[in-house]
Structures are given as C-alpha cells and as structure tokens.
Specification:
This protein is α/β, with parallel strands linked by helices. 44% of the residues lie in helices and 16% in strands. It contains four helices and three strands, in the order H-E-H-E-H-E-H. Strands 1-2-3 form a three-stranded parallel sheet, sandwiched between helices. Strand 1, helix 2 and strand 2 form a beta-alpha-beta unit. The longest helix is centred in the C-terminal third of the chain and has 15 residues. The protein is globular and about 35 Å long. The chain starts with a helix and ends in an 8-residue tail after the last helix. 14% of the residues are buried.
Length: 96
C-alpha cells in the first residue's frame, strides 16, 4: 500500500517500521533501493524496537538514512526533519 502511494506522489521522507503485518520494513527498503531512479531524493528513517549495533549496521547497509528506536520520541523526529530542512534550504531562502 505504501509503495503504491509512493508511486503516485513524491515524498521527502518516510518512516518505515521494521516489523509490519504483511511484510517487514527491510523488504520494503530493499524494493525502494532497487528502484533508486524513482526514489532518489527520499530520506528513509527506520523505526524499530531493535536498536543494537547489528541492526544499525544492517539498516545503514540496506540504504536507510536514519533510525529511531521505539518508543518514538518527538525530539528525534524534529532533529531528522530539521536536518532535511537544512539540507534542502537554498542560500537565498530564509523563510524556512
């Protein structure tokens, strides 16, 4: 369902849960990364209760940009969003 939505509209960021009912987030991440041309500007943040070094390396290796360990804390979401705003801000654009 999410992949279908992503084909209809361009998103800047998605929060992808590792454990989902129909498939896991790693499988969705793999599909996204196989279609790099379609999703080249997409920031992927994994959300998970599994936050050890092994998992962190796997998410990074698979192409995720960031991850948040559950329970999700609002300040971490704000940090990620601020990073994206700063990264995409044009020098002449001070309205952001």
């Amino acid at each position: 369902e999410a992949l279908g939505m992503m084909l209809k509209k361009q998103y800047t960021i998605i929060f992808l849960d590792v454990k989902m009912p129909k498939c896991n987030g790693i499988e969705v991440l793999d599909i996204i990364r196989l279609n790099k041309d379609l999703f080249s500007n997409l920031h992927i943040c994994m959300t998970t209760s599994l936050g050890g070094e092994k998992e962190k390396k796997l998410y990074n290796l698979k192409g995720a940009h960031s991850y948040i360990i559950k329970p999700i804390r609002q300040e971490l979401v704000h940090k990620i969003l601020q990073f994206l705003i700063d990264r995409n801000k044009k020098p002449e654009d001070d309205s952001l």
